[in-house]
Every structure is written in structure tokens, then in C-alpha cells.
């Protein structure tokens, strides 16, 4: 990884314990559970109490407490990447199929826009996920955006999984707020205060894990747990909830993983929601694994999760667009193509701008 991102990475993983706003002078925080009282639970695990949150206001993972180590990030950033020379000479990039206009004509579509961003048309509803489309001081795209944002006029919902800058981009959301003022934002608890000023005309719904959003169409979208964390600056660690999504229509189901380390929550999701027809699995930004594994899953573990969840079609994402870690941009896809049996031969090879639905 280029060392120009050192300060950005450092800010992203400074331990919560050294941030004064997170210190509780009255003793250690206690565990509570929370939810949005305005949203229902259509499906929930047995004995579910709500989204775990400490009394200091920080959200918590289900099975793996969030831990950050300044020493660990310094070790990662200062150690030599064994693939550094290979990355300098690697010119391979994702294949991009440019879209002139978006006219679904009544048939479902699932179009990858790069990284964790999708354009989805399902059950007559148009959805965007985690749109990060414009270069900024932190992120530079290595794959072209396949569509002109001006072509999007009838988007119903924008799903924002969490506040990290490779999933939640201020400039992109300000643009979409102007282009799509009627689109509703579906996101996690406490995200509204971050994005409302960027999109002042857009309605925002904030959910806890396993809560279902209030939508009019014959579609169900449920917010789900991941093993991850959140931070936008230096003083807001885990103040906003992170998560993934389960989208259900009468014809098919789509699981959007977002960012996650490996954990038992995947099995909990499939037991509660069912096995997905399409599993959109993060597979990149995973090296070095000793450092990345609590927050980003490897292609090997993503394949294992797919097997555990009983998915039908495996669609890899979160690689190839942004250079966030030590591996080569297309390395995760290389491994998946070399090991098709790992996902039961169910790999859908992703092409940016192409409809990835099978059939």
C-alpha cells in the first residue's frame, strides 16, 4: 500500500481508549441493548434483545469486542509490504462495461459500480448501495464509474452501510442529494446526524440490527449485523452503527455483506433470514491478515461463509476499485477463479457495469 495513506490509516485505527471523549470517569461502561422504536422486527433471532451498545454510547459487535492497537497500525504501516514491488508493476484492472442509460424494462438487475456500490432493480424498486463515485484526498478510483450519475432519476432507496469513507462519501452523497431528492436513505442508528446536512431533502431511516425498514413497496429490506466498527473523525469511534442488508422480493433474495470480519453472526443471519439467492461478499482489503481480519474478510473466509450460509450465487466485491491494503488489486478474484470448488462452482465473475443476475 502506498505510504501516502499513512496518516489516513493512522486516524482510522487510533485506539478508542486514548480518545478522551470515550473515557468514562464514573467507571467502566455497562452493556445495554437498543433499537429504533419506530421500526419493526419482521424476523429476529430467538432471545434477541436488540443491538448491543455500551452505556457510553458506543455500539458493539455481537461476538467480538472492537479492539484497536496503535502499535499494530504502526507495525503495519512501517513494515515493508512483501508484495510492494509486485504492486508497483501490476497494471491489471477490473473490466468495465460502460452503461449509456439505465432502463431495466421490468426485469431485475444487479449492476456492480465498483467496490461496495451496486445499482439494483428488484421487484420494481431501484436501489443504490454505498455510492462512492468521486475521487477525494483519500480515495482514488482504479476502475472507472460505468454510468453517468446524471442518468439516474428514479432511485427509490440509497443504502448506506456505515460511515467509513470508502462506503460513505460526502461529495457523492451531496451530488445524489441534488439529483435524487426523493430517494430515501436506509442506514444504521445515529447515521442521520452525519448525512442529513449533505442531503437535506432526503428522508432518512435508521435501523438497529434485524430491524426492517418502513417501505411502501412489496419488498423487505432488513439491516443486519457485521463484525466491524465505525469512525469518521478522531472523537466518534463506534458512535454510529454499522451493518449489512438482506433484500427480499417475491422472486429472489440478496444479501449485501458490507464490511465484516469472520464470525458467528453469519450463521445467525442465515438461520434468521434464510439462505440468500445472491450473496454479495466482501473479499478485498484483507492483507496483512493478522491486522485486517477483525474488520475485513479474506476471499478464503468469504467462501467459507458462503458455504455456511447456503447461498446460491457468490458475487465478490470490495476489491479492485480502491487500493486499501497490501494485496494486489485483483488478487482476491484470482484466488476465487483458481478455486471454484470453494464456492461450489457458484462464482459469478464480476464485471463493473454488467448485470450480474443469473438467468
UniProtKB/TrEMBL annotation:
Pfam families with a match to the protein in the record: Lactamase_B_2
Domain of life according to the entry: Bacteria
InterPro entries per UniProt: Metallo-B-lactamas, RibonucZ/Hydroxyglut_hydro
Coiled-coil intervals: none
Record-level GO cellular component terms: cytoplasm
Residues of the Metallo-beta-lactamase domain: 126-319
PANTHER family on file: N-ACYL-PHOSPHATIDYLETHANOLAMINE-HYDROLYZING PHOSPHOLIPASE D
Protein name: L-ascorbate metabolism protein UlaG, beta-lactamase superfamily
Native source organism of the sequence: Algoriphagus alkaliphilus
Amino acid at each position: 500500500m502506498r505510504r501516502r495513506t499513512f496518516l489516513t490509516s493512522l486516524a482510522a485505527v487510533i485506539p478508542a481508549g486514548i480518545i478522551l471523549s470515550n473515557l468514562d470517569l464514573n467507571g467502566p461502561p455497562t452493556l445495554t441493548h437498543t433499537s429504533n422504536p419506530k421500526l419493526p422486527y419482521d424476523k429476529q433471532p430467538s432471545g434477541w434483545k436488540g443491538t448491543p451498545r455500551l452505556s457510553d454510547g458506543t455500539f458493539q459487535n455481537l461476538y467480538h469486542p472492537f479492539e484497536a492497537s496503535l502499535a499494530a497500525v504502526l507495525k503495519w504501516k512501517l513494515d515493508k509490504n512483501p508484495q510492494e514491488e509486485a504492486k508497483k508493476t501490476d497494471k491489471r484492472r477490473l473490466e468495465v462495461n460502460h452503461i449509456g442509460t439505465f432502463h431495466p424494462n421490468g426485469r431485475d438487475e444487479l449492476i456492480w459500480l465498483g467496490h461496495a456500490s451496486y445499482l439494483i432493480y428488484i421487484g420494481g424498486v431501484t436501489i443504490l448501495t454505498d455510492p462512492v463515485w468521486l475521487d477525494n484526498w483519500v480515495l482514488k478510483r482504479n476502475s472507472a464509474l460505468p454510468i453517468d450519475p446524471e442518468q439516474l432519476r428514479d432511485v427509490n432507496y440509497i443504502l448506506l452501510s456505515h460511515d467509513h469513507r470508502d462506503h460513505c462519501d460526502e461529495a457523492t452523497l451531496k451530488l445524489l442529494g441534488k439529483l435524487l431528492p426523493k430517494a430515501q436513505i436506509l442506514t444504521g442508528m445515529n447515521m442521520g446526524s452525519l448525512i442529513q446536512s449533505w442531503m437535506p431533502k432526503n428522508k432518512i431511516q435508521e435501523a438497529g440490527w434485524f430491524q426492517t425498514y418502513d417501505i411502501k413497496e412489496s419488498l423487505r429490506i432488513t439491516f443486519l449485523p457485521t463484525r466491524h466498527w465505525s469512525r469518521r473523525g478522531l472523537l466518534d469511534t463506534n458512535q454510529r452503527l454499522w451493518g449489512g442488508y438482506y433484500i427480499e422480493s417475491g422472486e429472489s433474495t440478496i444479501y449485501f455483506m458490507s464490511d465484516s470480519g469472520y464470525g458467528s453472526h453469519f450463521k445467525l443471519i442465515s438461520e434468521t433470514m434464510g439462505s440468500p439467492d445472491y450473496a454479495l461478499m466482501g473479499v478485498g482489503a484483507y492483507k496483512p491478515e493478522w491486522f485486517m481480519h477483525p474488520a475485513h474478510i479474506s476471499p478464503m473466509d468469504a467462501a467459507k461463509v458462503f458455504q455456511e450460509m447456503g447461498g446460491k450465487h457468490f458475487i465478490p466485491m470490495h476489491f479492485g476499485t480502491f487500493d486499501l491494503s497490501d494485496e494486489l488489486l485483483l488478487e482476491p478474484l484470482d484466488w476465487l477463479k483458481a478455486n471454484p470448488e470453494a464456492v461450489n462452482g457458484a462464482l459469478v465473475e464480476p464485471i463493473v457495469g454488467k448485470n450480474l443476475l443469473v438467468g
